[in-house]
Amino acid sequence: MPINKSFAIEAPRFCVLGAGHGGMAMAGHLGLMGYEVNIYNRSESRLTPVTLSGGIELTGLIEGFGPVNLATTEIVEAIRDVDILMVVVPATGHAFMAEKVAPHLQDGQVILLNPGRTGGALEFRNVLKKMGCQAEVIVGEAQTLLYASRNLNPAQVRIFGMKNTIPVAALPGQHTVKLVKKLRQVFPQFVPGDNVIKTSLDNIGAIFHPALTVLNAARIESTRGEFQFYMEGVTPSVAHVLEALDEERVSVAAALGIRAMSAREWLYVAYDAPGKTLFEAMRNNHGYKGINAPSMVDHRYLWEDVSMSLVPIASLGEHLDVPTPTIRNIIHLASLMNQTDYWGSGRTVEKMGLAGFSVAEIRRLALEGDPG
Prior knowledge:
Order of helices and strands: EHEHEEEHEHEHEEEEHEHHHHHHHHHHH
Strand order of the largest sheet: 5-2-1-6-7-8-11-12
Shape: globular
Low-confidence stretches: 1-8
Radius of gyration: 20 Å
Largest sheet: 8 strands, mixed
Number of strands: 12
Oligomer: single chain
Structural class: alpha/beta
Helix content: 40-55%
């Protein structure tokens, strides 16, 4: 039976799209809390152990067994009659997921990208529109992923930590309160964000991950990542590059009338790490101690964070006549290192459905879902 548009108050039914580290943690946690949850993955190999065991074993911060109602590669069965679709895949898979669900969505369903990176909800909505989806749904994005987790064994996940507060915004923004009310029945960590432009441009991973990987490429490849990424990989000169990247991100946000939090401010708010400079703040962040670098340059810090975080910021900058030379240099160097055209595969204004839009039209789209 189709989901009622009034968003009924009974316990919501979930589908988690993606069986990676975050998806398995979310599906297991939902099952452990007593919610009916399906899990979808395009390859069956990750789902077979879940089907055989009937659920997912959780260890670490959360202990117990989370039953899973259905683990399937059939998207129709996975999302039929569920209330909330939790998309938990790398941002490079958002367009694929939108194409898969578009023909089968039902009125009243909620779709949340965990997280959206930069422009995730905009791209997802644009794909649904191109696919001719007529269902009345809400698409939203979280600013970051709720869990820090790793798959240990088939159908077993260790949860190392959970965020305390995660801003969430709906597209259109006028539905954010409705979205958060629905989510907070289950996850009190989700709080209302301003809009999807704000959640997208407060993506601090865009500043830290790609540039640190590019600037430490030789050390990563020679040591297989055996050094502390943030403590040893950031020196005063490297921090100068990060500050330039950050200033460009904040400038793009300002051109859209958004006051984005600087990376230095974010470190203070998120980790209570003070500093007069970004270098000082990063050195004072005890949460970064012990975190090693990636073991190779062909890592999601480039193939996801460049194409789905830096490219959309630079593309928006070009669209708004805001120079982003440092961001563009990192995109170029990352593309050379991994022999991949990240600009060609990345999330541009065209893919976000913003080509030709004025600032006023982009803001109206974010708030009302219609540029007018």
